[in-house]
Write a structure and sequence with these properties.
The structure is a homodimer. Chain A is of the alpha+beta class. Chain A contains 15 helices and 17 strands. In chain A, strands 7-11-12-17-16-15-14-13 form an 8-stranded mixed beta sheet, with helices on both faces.
Chain lengths: 516, 516
Amino acid sequence: MPGVATRKNQERTRDNAMEQPPADGCLFLEHGASSVQDYAKERYGVLPLIQSQEKPDRMLIRIKDLTGEKADEVVWVRGRIHTSRAKGKQCFLVLRQQQFNIQALVAVGDHASKQMVKFAANISKESIVDIEGVVRKVPHKIEGCTQQDVELHIQRIYVISLAEPRLPLQLDDAIRPEVEGEEEGRATVNQDTRLDNRVIDLRTSTSQAIFRLQSGVCQLFRETLIHKGFVEIQTPKIISAASEGGANVFTVSYFKSSAYLAQSPQLYKQMCICADFDKVFCIGPVFRAEDSNTHRHLTEFVGLDIEMAFNYHYHEVVEEIADTMVQIFKGLQERFQTEIQTVNKQFPCEPFKFLEPTLRLEYQEAVAMLREAGVEMGDEEDLSTPSEKLLGRLVKEKYDTDFYILDKYPLAVRPFYTMPDPANAKTSNSYDMFMRGEEILSGAQRIHDPQLLTERALHHGIDLEKIKAYIDSFRFGAPPHAGGGIGLERVTMLYLGLGNIRQTSMFPRDPKRLTP
Amino acid sequence: MPGVATRKNQERTRDNAMEQPPADGCLFLEHGASSVQDYAKERYGVLPLIQSQEKPDRMLIRIKDLTGEKADEVVWVRGRIHTSRAKGKQCFLVLRQQQFNIQALVAVGDHASKQMVKFAANISKESIVDIEGVVRKVPHKIEGCTQQDVELHIQRIYVISLAEPRLPLQLDDAIRPEVEGEEEGRATVNQDTRLDNRVIDLRTSTSQAIFRLQSGVCQLFRETLIHKGFVEIQTPKIISAASEGGANVFTVSYFKSSAYLAQSPQLYKQMCICADFDKVFCIGPVFRAEDSNTHRHLTEFVGLDIEMAFNYHYHEVVEEIADTMVQIFKGLQERFQTEIQTVNKQFPCEPFKFLEPTLRLEYQEAVAMLREAGVEMGDEEDLSTPSEKLLGRLVKEKYDTDFYILDKYPLAVRPFYTMPDPANAKTSNSYDMFMRGEEILSGAQRIHDPQLLTERALHHGIDLEKIKAYIDSFRFGAPPHAGGGIGLERVTMLYLGLGNIRQTSMFPRDPKRLTP
């Protein structure tokens, strides 16, 4: 009988999860026979597991909608117990729903008995409860809550899902700014504890804001490109040959043979261009078997990829990509101001600055700026990470922008498929884009001529057999084209001025982390 | 010197790619010295490889914009040579751009010499050319082209990218309806030839339409869900443990250890629900190491995944998903009519029918319908593929819909995490959705109680150690929730009434195919 099973579950849930198993039967809604004097016994308890037994005609209101306008209304709310504090004959709860919270109060009186207050006070933090209460205006703003003008006077409280009493991390610790924590000697939560308990860490207002904003980055990226006439494509992640030479690639066992995980959708984006899709984009995982344990490397990240045929000059594509980034920055400013401010509370940061049109510097200009600042480097040398950071600061000082394009990289430091610059044998039609001094996009005009591609591959010492399919793609008429790949997690991290890419990957993967 | 390199490339290109190397120098724009009598020699030729040498101030017009309104204007167009037919002193070309094409004509006269006409006639099919021409109205509609009211009178023609002369497949063969081809003894192109030469196969109007519509499915899916308040999430594809028991999973070597490719984002979607994201969706690759070589199985496909917390009953979620599908169907009808008709020309099919609200049948009703139609099956038996197809026909006859929900599957045929039906020990709160008699979505209310989950896992003989992280996700308060996963390629295939999933996957992966 399902009823019996349900009750059994309930009892075990209570034993495991309540901090102090109550002495009387007050936990049970329907069968609290032992407590005869409890006039409120039907007003609280642990409800049976919701198995879709019924479809009650009851509206649950969102906490964010509980404002002064609802004063004196009786409402039903479902939320988590964020904190609870018993004080004599009453208990104050903070009820949380995503990034919103409200103060709730249960006090001994007509609606609540002593047992009911005790029950409420004993519900473990993070448990989910259904509350019926009256919305009451408060004389002084409630500073700790997002709903500052009202509180909820509880008339009924039922547990929907009990949390285990000992949380692996405290949400209040998890949103404390690190400096503040250190100064006051209060706890903060380290990265590994957060990631090991990601289900809880993601509940903080900071995490909620980061990932809602990240969802926005994807949305703005697509909105902008679809508006510009791009087509979304889906490219395979299991590939038969390592496209970029074979280093840093994960191997997959594929039935009786083996295969690889794609390090980028580039070949497929280019095939779509050769197949007349003209302008394409894709969003998907990208895999790099790089043993890098830095603040900005992941072994699996999300690529926002663009490829586009152009008419005469690859700057047509550079401008489209830069404009797409600008539309993302603007959209975030307009639509995600609350999220930005929420993250800033824990991780203070200057607002992200950008110019319109986007600043484009040539590589040699950057080299000159760096040399003037004391960096020694050759003309054809790639930028080191510290040089990139320094350059970011120099550009910010000189041009007041956190976003810029570095164009015309030395040919020698770019992949074989990069189009050489027709005007200078040492440079190439390639570019990176930077946010706050860190690279977020790498791109180039690609060689669309099979013969030049063959020459360049040979020059790089690449085995032609391994890239035959790639080169063959261009044999049946290929338009000139360029593109680039953007790292989603880096965009989110750098836009918000965060210090570690693991903060902007929900379930990050690095050489040492594969869980959760 | 870049100039020299470019010319070298040009010459080689000519030797390899022109069907008959012309006797004179007419292929060369800038150095056709041998042909002194050619008064048009600057009006045609093979241009140097576009390496972004310049940014000319020249507008290229889109073929789809060449209508009667442009009559008598001189325009520049870039397109592919779709067909060419020389006839005495003139040559007719069909110039193609994606799904649009126009007739173009070059004739000996003021603007074109004999050599120029010969040059145009010799350009290999699929080459990309830039044409300057006058738009002229035609007295009779041009039946073979999308631009039927005008043709282009060529004044200049330059090759931008030469195609090799022997194409592995002909585009006209590739869009011929199979029945027509058979009747007339004309060629059609088989699946493997298409897939082996996907860059060319994707250029057909049918392929262009299929994948533009598929891009639309993703767009409509997201638009609808973002409007409903869902958040987009990104879930990892490399996972440390096989989530659903370990069968049919691909193994990845991960540094010194090994890992798996995710068979579904389900655990991560559910973790996001436990982390208060409330309503989430994701679009991404899903991997199944199943050795199935059928018309509807791929080893890598794109999952459109949804997970959502609900208040009281999982039908709240079923309704949201069904409505999302309906919005997709409506959006396709409204925005992709041209694409639907294009595909129908090659693959005729009845328009897709659906009801509002969506028809929902209980599993036992379906069993009764099948039994009435002569199928023998037990109450707790799963539907075979032929039964599903038959059921689709029966439902279509009775209710006139190609889309419906089958609810309350037997508990025995569903995964361990499926919530049992509280009213019937043999059934479960689970559902599939069907399009034209084939499953496109599988979903359920999930068990959100760690103890019931443990019981059900044990009942299924699952090693608890392997799913510990999964079960632990529910220990700190979990809302009731349900969800489902939709196969993108199946939706596209079945909406368009196509017969093979390889037609709706750009670069399909199956046990026998890993390329291109």
